[in-house]
Amino acid sequence: METSLSSFDPSKVARPHRSLLTYYAFVSLLAGPAFPVAFLPLFCKYQTLRYRLDGEGISMSWGIFFRREIYLTYRRIQDIHLTRNLLQRWMGLATVSVQTASGSSSPEASIEGLLEADALRNFLYQKMRGVREQTAQFLAGGAGEGQALESGDEALALLREIRDGLKLLLAAREGRP
Q1: What tens-digit pLDDT sequence spans the chain (177 residues)?
Q2: 3-state secondary structure at position 168
Q3: Is residue 152 part of a domain?
Q4: Is the dihedral of CA 70, 71, 73, 76 positive or negative?
Q5: Whole-prediction pTM value?
Q6: Dihedrals phi, psi of 52, to nearest 5 degrees
Q7: Cα–Cα distance, 127 to 125 (Å, whole number)
Q8: Quick check: is 70 in a domain?
Q9: Which of 26, 42, 142, 148 is deepest in the core (most CB within 10 A)?
Q10: CB under 8 Å to 20, separation ≥6 — which residues?
């Protein structure tokens, strides 16, 4: 199911699609007689799984006894993978895995149970590239004065001060005013 980026609303990505529970049931059936033991944790994960995409990043949370919460800013995203096994393709589901430079080989976050996974992947790529382009433009001196302070990014403001200081130092060294 292909969804265009213009019609994709990231604020509506809050819960996995109900067919993820069916997928979990099929996967748990592979455990045979241990079906209840395999299905119960997946059922609890499905019931508590929440997503939130805002202007700054992605938030995920799940769990009953052991609550897990992940927040990734778009700035930290290094790579995005979209995976679909045979059963997921048949059900129209996909998993979007988001990797950061954390040093771990496993993804930092896996957004499961989405029907519009292609649009989500494209949205995340757009956000990731936008942040990188904005940072590159800022470091090259193309950003307006105070832009980093408006966005609340102290690291970029510090880098700008260092850049400007180095320019002044270089100009003084060459005898320019």
Answers
A1: 444 456 788 888 899 999 999 999 999 999 999 999 999 999 999 999 999 998 889 999 999 988 999 999 888 888 899 999 999 999 999 999 999 887 777 888 899 998 999 999 999 988 887 766 766 666 676 655 445 445 557 777 888 889 999 988 888 888 765
A2: helix
A3: no
A4: negative
A5: 0.69
A6: -150, 125
A7: 5
A8: yes
A9: 148
A10: 46, 93, 112, 113
